[in-house]
Amino acid sequence: MLIRKPADIRPSEITSKSNYVNRRSFIKAGLAAGGGLIASPGLSAVLPREPRAKLDDISPSPFSTDETPTSYEDITTYNNFYEFGTGKDDPHRNARDFEPWPWTLEVEGHADKTGAFHLEDFVKPYALEERIYRMRCVEAWSMVIPWVGIPLADVIKTLQPTSKAKYVAFRTLHDPKRMPGQRRRVLDWPYREGLTIAEAMHPLTILAVGVYDEVMPNQNGAPIRLVVPWKYGFKGIKSIVGIRFTERMPRTSWNMSAPHEYGFYANVNPNVDHPRWSQARERRIGSGLFASRQPTLMFNGYAEQVASLYEGLDLVRNY
Ligand SMILES: Nc1nc2c(c(=O)[nH]1)N[C@H]1C(S)=C(S)[C@@H](COP(=O)(O)O)O[C@H]1N2
Ligand SMILES: [Mo]
Question: Do the beta carbons of residue 80 and residue 88 sit within 8 Å?
Answer without folding.
Answer: yes
